[in-house]
């Protein structure tokens, strides 16, 4: 027998089992297109250029979807091969050798995988372009975000799913290699034994979930959040699978042992049915739970970023007009002269354009990195290393009092102290050749202090800034990158035309003008670009939410189909012994409610515990309002639950039609 015979037989088998293969091919196509789209987004121009954080987050998304794809296709394939055990056993009875059966399965896997991969790539390409066109039209972005992909994205997708389908082939071959044909003929009728449940796996699931939750709760700053986000996600995913596989069995067995609940017709059928199929059912529920978590996080965070655009813009540019001075000063006199001269110049330019200064703030500061070691701040020149350095900002008391309206006084050996993590509780701090007695204060500086572990030190006067810089220079003689900077911000009152003229004057004067050590930024000039960037984040969030929701739809459909085939013969037997159709619907309705609630409830718990780490990541985008995210989160959970309920209502009809 040649390969043509085996390939023809494989094609005939796929056609004759189309009721099984069509859901499998649709689901495989969907997961392939989902992965292809994620890889394409990783190389998208908008993702690459708008934020240094986005490529890292999308890389995490690619890895997570890749792991999810392995589990999902192995899960759907196990259902497919289980339904075909009788057919494979019949081949053995008819005289085909195991190597011949392996060839048939090879061609079946080859044809189905080729069809799925090609269809997945084409679907991903088509869906990506259509979705981008639709979202660009709906959101009315200033500049359209283009969908792009590459041969590298397609190659990575082909390589991964060739490997996955190779694993499914090896699994299928193993199902008949170590079994005799008679047992395979009876395999479908034998059913699954009641799962014993593993207390060790159940405890391990709680440990992994607790570990992942703990990382999120204890994360110190946004930079650490980026580093540990993938680990937390991976732990929660593994913990979710183990929880559904082991924890659900413990719950169902507890219900079974409760005689008042179990020995009722509807409960008896639904509980026993779910218990006997829970190993396969649990994987599907875990898949839905993970996708639901992805939808909620992706959509809620990007909507929060978009809603917080105005707040973010104000955090980034606290005043309408912001002038920054930077450079090296040799003495206090030179520093003061330049600092106050620029303030006078800005006020003069404002008045020349017929505007009044409504509010003005100015301060001098210097920033450097280091670590706290035994009550001393140790300078650090190289930011690389095992430990994350602490950012310290020193500011003179005169400027601090001017910023806050306070009236603090300090002796030469005293300083005001703010620590973002509040973990340093010593009453004194040595830095360079000085030792300061500390008085703790709250954050009066900037939301950026929460971006990484930071310290603000308010020193008695500006000469201390020079002393600290000199101590730093003595330690690192080849370095001159530490500078004493000044920030000047002001809001003005007047007509829009006058304000525009002031913007042009300040831009000409302090951006490449006579003062080469200055930078001017106008909030209004940055507004359009800022809203465009945040609108792009919303665009990506909706796109990912739509993508994951479609994945949820297909997985739910496949789960209902597989459960329908598993339950059909059981219900036919029960009908023969007197169980009417209404009783069947009543028993299956409880299963549907059970299956509906579990993924949503667990996903909501996951996202709730993810809040601390998500909050840190939102700080990277300048979002500091917790209430905005909370209200968005609640709205997205309700909206997704409603969509998921509609999906379940539609797919449950498929289940009922198969069972009847």
From TrEMBL:
It is found in: Cell membrane. Pfam families: FtsX. The chain crosses the membrane at residues 20-42, 54-76, 104-127, 147-171, 198-217, 229-252, 284-307, 537-558, 592-614, 626-647. Keywords: Cell membrane, Membrane, Transmembrane, Transmembrane helix, Transport. It is a multi-pass membrane protein. InterPro entries: ABC-4_Integral_Memb_Prot, ABC3_permease_C, ABC_permease_BceB-typ. It comes from the Bacteria. Residues 60-181 form the ABC3 transporter permease C-terminal domain. Its main location: membrane. Belongs to the ABC-4 integral membrane protein family. This is FtsX-like permease family protein. It comes from Jeotgalibacillus terrae.
